[in-house]
Design a protein that fits this description.
This protein is an all-alpha fold. Helix content is 76%, strand content 0%.
């Protein structure tokens, strides 16, 4: 009952944050306050879940969702408070977060025993870098999606596409790329310690590598070939789609090792 109440409360706070982000002027600042409250609610939910099941929130789909909903809010707050232009990105980024939050209210909350293969410190590095990557990728989605929407609505390059916004977008993607690479390295070390192999091309590993590869191609095209800006924005949206599938699809469609059965 408590988990469900916190889950719905967090989703409501993110919904309020998204609605506030649609406004201009002083009220737009409410989006950050509601985002902070939502992150605190999900942090409380993670703590409640941890005490209930006795292990970190990274095993079941529900646990992965609520822990990411906490870190997504934290990353959004850090970026939005340091980069003024990032607040415009919240309009689409928070919409994606709201949809994830609503999904989390509907999935099974049944616990699962922690496999022995998950008792490895490299797992924490693997999970931590992954959560930061997803947060940065969501902010980048907000920027890219907003620019594409403006371009479609106005039939011309949006005025909001300043050099500063473009620079922040690709800086965020570069940081996301580095975090994703660190996630893959930490995961490979974890796999080698646990199963005696670095890589096995299981569906989750393949999906994660494909996400990294698309990011690498997007950054290379941006730097070396100066591709049209709308194409770059489309690649950013594609990266987010692949990342979402990697985090919330593949681990629960395929069998271990990532489910601890390897």
């Amino acid at each position: 009952m408590l988990e469900s109440a916190l889950c719905w409360s967090g989703a409501g706070c993110y919904g309020a944050a998204w609605l506030a982000s649609l406004r201009d002027g002083p009220r737009a600042g409410l989006a950050l306050w509601f985002t902070a409250i939502a992150a605190l609610v999900y942090a409380s939910l993670v703590a409640v879940r941890w005490l209930a099941v006795g292990h970190g929130p990274f095993l079941t789909l529900f646990e992965v969702q609520i822990s990411n909903l906490c870190t997504l809010g934290v990353v959004a707050l850090v970026v939005a408070t340091r980069v003024t232009e990032a607040r415009a990105a919240l309009r689409i980024a928070l919409l994606a977060v709201v949809l994830l939050a609503l999904w989390s209210t509907q999935v099974s909350k049944a616990p699962a025993p922690l496999p022995a293969s998950f008792g490895n410190p490299w797992l924490w590095a693997h999970v931590g870098f992954g959560k930061i990557f997803l947060g940065l990728c969501t902010i980048a989605l907000g920027w890219a999606g907003g620019l594409l929407w403006d371009l479609r609505a106005r039939q011309r390059m949006p005025a909001a596409c300043s050099e500063a916004v473009e620079r922040h977008l690709w800086q965020t993607m570069t940081l996301a790329f580095l975090c994703h690479g660190a996630m893959l390295v930490a995961g490979a070390v974890w796999a080698n310690d646990t199963w005696g192999r670095w890589w096995a091309w299981d569906p989750l590993e393949t999906s994660a590598f494909l996400t990294w590869l698309v990011m690498a191609v997007a950054l290379h095209l941006r730097l070396a070939w100066s591709i049209p800006r709308p194409l770059g924005w489309c690649l950013v949206v594609a990266v987010f789609g692949l990342a979402f599938l990697t985090f919330f699809g593949m681990p629960f469609l395929s069998l271990a090792p990532h489910k601890g059965l390897g």
